[in-house]
Amino acid sequence: MKTEIVEFKGWTLRVRPSTEENPRLLVMIHGWTGDENSMWVFARRFPADMWMIAPRAPHHADPQGFSWRPPQPLTFGRPSLEMLLPSAEALIRLIDEYAASVKIEAKQFDVIGFSQGGAMVNVLGMLFPERVHKMGVLAGFVPAGLDAYIEKRSLEGKQVFVAHGTLDELVPIDRARASMQLMEQAGASITYCEDEVGHKLSSNCLRALEEYLTN
Questions:
Q1: CATH number of the domain to which 97 belongs
Q2: What is the pTM of this model?
């Protein structure tokens, strides 16, 4: 897979362009302490018609990497909508400006995210449902503060892929199951893959994700 690093309007992106006509845009959102390289381990067999971008989050994480929210004491693992909203809005601007610069269609895009990136996927899907097509929440969760969007069923009609490990200690499986209930209350139809792994994506769930993105 040939990818390239792109510096674009203050963002650092790793990009795999597509040679297909009218490519689909896939945005891949890394987790806490990750960067623009983290999500590509999942992407080796993703569809050829996808133009894939993985942006680096705007905030430094401690002790390394990057985060989609500023550091806030005593809130580890519990980012809220309020904390993530500035990055979500900035991502939408980035997608529009980048897509225009390379002349690809981005009125709707697919998005997958891991851990904190999965929380960002839920924020994007609920706040900007008209923009988001397919959603993949990998070892992620629904952050606090989305109650109003859940009540108005912002994910109505959307197919959402969710994968989680039963041995996950960073985002426990009970939290993932509670988050799925919230997504369903918001109107989503969920394709769920659960496996006996920790805070990672199993090979079985990766195959299921590839199938979800292809169909």
A1: 3.40.50.1820
A2: 0.96
